[in-house]
């Protein structure tokens, strides 16, 4: 009996394997009586089904993007706000009076213009934040023409000191005060905010000695600088008006028309504009 059960067991196993592989067995081997094996035993002899992997198309995401969450919306708003720069405000401009020569004295964001000419002297100062970063393009171009013209005459005129920031002038001035005292320093050095160098319209050339005025370059400069829009800013005979000692090396760009008028009349910029130059 035990032998028949073992044979039936193996025959049943053959039937199961044949059915899964599609093999048709002889009818004798398909007798139901030979396959009286318990369900548990059948599970033990059967191998798990193996299925060929099938290629599935990737799921396509929904074309509509999900609504942003509140946190995402807030983040996007904050990022956008950071990129927005504040609009430039209109310059605050007002006329504070009229010069003795009839020119309007106008203040634009703390900067003084007399008859449209930017002024920095002992009476009118510049804000500490005013910084053009160098000589203005007009000044630089005009000086390039001037030095090229001088070179054609066999002369060399070059810049030794151009633009100075408020902070640089502050150091320069107080160094002079430490060396010579404030009273003497005020005759040859501007207080911070009162220097023409801060405007980007003035420069010193060649030498910081009054003897420069007697050199070939100094004489040519005094005679021809107006042709390029410059003036000798602090003439020897105008010390009491400009408030500064004679500086043959210091030239200021004012444009060809005004420079020509000042040269022709033999006056200084304060006289032309009708303004003073004295500390309060």
Q: What share of residues are in beta strands? A: 5-15%
Shape: elongated
Strand order of the largest sheet: 1-2-3-4
CATH class of the largest domain: Alpha Beta
- Summed up, the helix count is 10
What is the total domain count? 2
CATH architecture of the largest domain: 2-Layer Sandwich
Whole-number average pLDDT? 81
Alpha-carbon Rg, integer: 48 Å
What distance lies between the first and last C-alpha atoms, to the nearest angstrom?
134 Å
Helix content: 25-40%
What pattern of helices and strands is seen along the backbone? HHHEEEEHEHHEHEHEHH
Tell me about the biggest sheet?
4 strands, antiparallel
Given helix and strand content, the structural type is alpha+beta
CATH fold type of the largest domain: Muramoyl-pentapeptide Carboxypeptidase, domain 2
Poorly predicted ranges: 25-87
How many runs of DSSP E, i.e. beta strands?
Answer: 8
Spell out the blueprint of helices and strands:
Layout: H1 2-21, H2 39-45, H3 70-83, E1 93-98, E2 104-108, E3 111-114, E4 117-118, H4 137-152, E5 159-161, H5 166-180, H6 182-185, E6 202-205, H7 216-224, E7 230-234, H8 239-242, E8 247-253, H9 256-265, H10 269-273
Antiparallel strand pairs: 1-2, 2-3, 3-4, 5-6, 6-8, 7-8
Report on the architecture of this protein.
The protein is an alpha+beta fold. It contains ten helices and eight strands. The protein folds into two domains: 1-49; 116-273, Muramoyl-pentapeptide Carboxypeptidase, domain 2 (2-Layer Sandwich), CATH 3.30.1380.10. 37% of the residues lie in helices and 13% in strands. Strand 1 and strand 2 (104-108) form a beta hairpin. The radius of gyration is 48 Å and the shape is elongated. Mean pLDDT is 81; it is low at 25-87.
């Amino acid at each position: 009996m035990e032998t028949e059960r073992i044979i039936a067991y193996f025959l049943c196993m053959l039937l199961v394997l044949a059915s899964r592989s599609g093999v048709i067995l002889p009818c004798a081997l398909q007798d139901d009586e030979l396959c009286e094996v318990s369900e548990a035993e059948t599970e033990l002899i059967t191998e798990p089904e193996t299925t060929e992997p099938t290629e599935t198309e990737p799921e396509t995401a929904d074309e509509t993007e999900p609504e942003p969450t509140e946190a995402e919306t807030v983040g996007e708003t904050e990022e956008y706000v950071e990129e927005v720069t504040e609009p430039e405000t209109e310059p605050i401009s007002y006329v504070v009076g009229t010069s003795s020569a009839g020119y309007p004295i106008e203040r634009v964001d703390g900067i003084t213009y007399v008859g449209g000419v930017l002024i920095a002297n002992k009476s009118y100062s510049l804000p500490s934040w005013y910084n053009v970063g160098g000589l203005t393009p007009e000044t630089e171009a005009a000086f390039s023409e001037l030095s090229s013209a001088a070179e054609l005459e066999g002369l060399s005129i070059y810049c030794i000191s151009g633009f100075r920031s408020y902070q640089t002038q502050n150091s320069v001035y107080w160094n002079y005060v430490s060396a010579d005292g404030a009273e003497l320093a005020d005759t040859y050095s501007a207080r911070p905010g009162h220097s023409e160098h801060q405007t980007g319209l003035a420069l010193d050339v060649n030498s910081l000695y009054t003897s420069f005025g007697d050199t070939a370059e100094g004489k040519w400069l005094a005679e021809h600088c107006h042709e390029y829009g410059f003036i000798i800013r602090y003439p020897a005979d105008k010390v009491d008006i400009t408030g500064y000692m004679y500086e043959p090396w210091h030239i200021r760009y004012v444009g060809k028309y005004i420079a020509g008028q000042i040269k022709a009349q033999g006056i200084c910029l304060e006289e032309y504009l009708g303004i003073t130059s004295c500390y309060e």
